[in-house]
Amino acid sequence: MTYRLDHVNIRTADPERLVEWYGRVLGLESGWRPPFDFPGAWLYAGEHPVIHLVGVAVTPGAAADAVRIEHFALSGDDLEGFRARLAAAGVESRERPVPGTDILQFNLRDPDGNHLHIDFRTGETG
């Protein structure tokens, strides 16, 4: 199985401000985002969306040193092998297709409760 960091997900009460900041400071550009039923934006480095902003009513942890990252994601290349690995390890996950894409996500938590998802391309647009 091959894994690579796919993107970082950040919850914010002001997505527009972060789109502007990441564009100005890192040169990231706002681009296509699946039709989720919540507000947000995807910021791209070239053709790859590296930061996913999720709009929320109040930015979590308003203190400057508080964590605002909701999850991290990895891309995998052996869907059935990963399913078997989860089953063998007794790890629960939630499978979810990403609307308008060919990506199937496995959402799970590590022993400390951190949320991560592993993304697999299925070849079928959902």
From TrEMBL:
PROSITE patterns recorded: VOC (PS51819)
Highest taxon of the lineage: Bacteria
Domain spans labelled VOC: 4-121
SUPFAM superfamilies per the UniProt record, alphabetical: Glyoxalase/Bleomycin resistance protein/Dihydroxybiphenyl dioxygenase (SSF54593)
Membrane-spanning intervals of the chain: none
Entry protein name: VOC family protein
Organism whose genome encodes this protein: Paralimibaculum aggregatum
Lineage, top ranks: Bacteria, Pseudomonadati, Pseudomonadota, Alphaproteobacteria, Rhodobacterales
